[in-house]
Design brief:
By secondary structure, this protein is of the alpha/beta class. It has helices at residues 40-47, 88-98, 103-116, 132-144, 162-177, 189-195, 213-219, 234-238, 263-270, 285-293, and strands spanning 2-11, 14-24, 29-33, 55-60, 63-64, 73-76, 150-154, 181-185, 198-203, 206-212, 223-229, 243-249, 252-257, 275-281. It has two domains: 2-216, P-loop containing nucleotide triphosphate hydrolases (Rossmann fold, 3-Layer(aba) Sandwich); 221-281, YebC, transcriptional regulation domain (Alpha-Beta Plaits), CATH 3.30.70.980. 33% of the residues lie in helices and 29% in strands. The protein is globular and about 75 Å long. The protein starts with a strand and ends in a 6-residue tail after the last helix.
């Protein structure tokens, strides 16, 4: 298990991470979310032992993370960090040796992963000759070639088409199934909901929301009602007690209410119309994020 406990990090007088705590269990995909500058990258670097911190504790299986532990960690950065003048084979060997692998094991794992991602023919190709999408595949393979116990993924789907994104999804889920601890950060909330059961949202280095996504949605007071029916107007819906906002979305009226106690108010207003749709829905994770940090995150 990875434990981040009450960690505080300053850069000079600037407080970058403020009393941050979370845990990631084996086989769990955990979402660490926040806008740019919120402290995510600093947190990743502290977890990998690249940055010291002023207070708190970070442990992997109850051991302090130092140079002896880094071979257990894989990291896919948002910015590409490939050595583009190397061949794919040379890139794998360079990185794998740094992670304590033998060249024989690097070649075995590298070829198997290239085959899985449908790019076996690039083994001897220079990275600079590959498309952006295939470079992203190579970067991902480089991050997992040593079969890490903890994997940090920062915007893993950047530059991928839907087909290749699905390949990444399958591999990530398979790794979690095999016990890998995964920290997942992305600007795409639909990916967060696909992978993660638990999240922490940070702002200015401090947690502003955390826990299981299902409970977070259930506890979030505002709900959405989607309505279709004859003769209903935005104006009449807007003045109903408990309604916060009304807008037209693809033929539906999306009615935001303060909480579930106001559902009956809305229904009573429209029940005598020819209603073809009355659906009470949870708020999206993106909507909750906006409410908490005041910024849109990846629409």
């Amino acid at each position: 298990m990875l434990k981040v406990e009450n960690v505080v990090k300053y850069y000079g007088d600037f407080l970058a991470v403020d009393d941050l705590s979370f845990t990631v269990k084996r086989g769990e995909i955990f979402g660490l979310l926040g806008v740019n500058g919120s402290g995510k990258t600093t947190t990743f670097r502290m977890i990998m032992g690249l940055l010291d911190f002023q207070a708190g504790k970070i442990t992997l299986d109850d051991k302090k993370i130092d140079y002896s532990m880094t071979n257990k960690i894989g990291f896919l950065t948002e910015e590409r960090s490939l050595l583009t003048k190397l061949t794919v084979k040379e890139q794998f060997i360079f990185y794998g040796v740094l992670k304590g692998m033998t060249e024989e094991k690097i070649i075995e794992n590298g070829k198997a992963l290239l085959k899985k991602f449908g790019i076996s023919e690039y083994w001897e190709r220079k990275i600079k000759e590959l498309s952006k999408g295939n470079q992203q595949k190579i970067q991902f393979i480089t991050a997992i070639i040593h079969q890490p116990e903890l994997l940090i993924l920062d915007e893993p789907f950047s530059g991928l088409d839907p087909l290749n994104a699905e390949l990444f999804q399958k591999e990530i889920l398979e790794m979690a199934k095999n016990g890998c601890m995964i920290i997942f950060s992305t600007h795409r909330m639909e990916h967060v909901e696909l992978f993660c059961k638990k999240i922490v949202i940070i702002q200015d280095g401090r947690e502003v929301l955390g826990g299981e996504i299902r409970k977070i949605k259930n506890d979030y007071r505002r709900k959405n009602i989607f309505i279709q029916g004859a003769g209903i107007t935005k104006e009449e819906l807007s003045v109903i007690d408990g309604v916060v906002n009304v807008r037209k979305v693809k033929g539906d009226f999306e009615v935001k209410i303060k909480d579930n106690s106001y559902v009956d108010n809305v229904f009573d207003q429209v029940k005598d119309r020819k209603i073809t749709k009355f659906l009470v829905d949870e708020p999206s994770l993106n909507e909750i994020f906006v409410a908490k940090v005041g910024e849109k995150y990846g629409e």
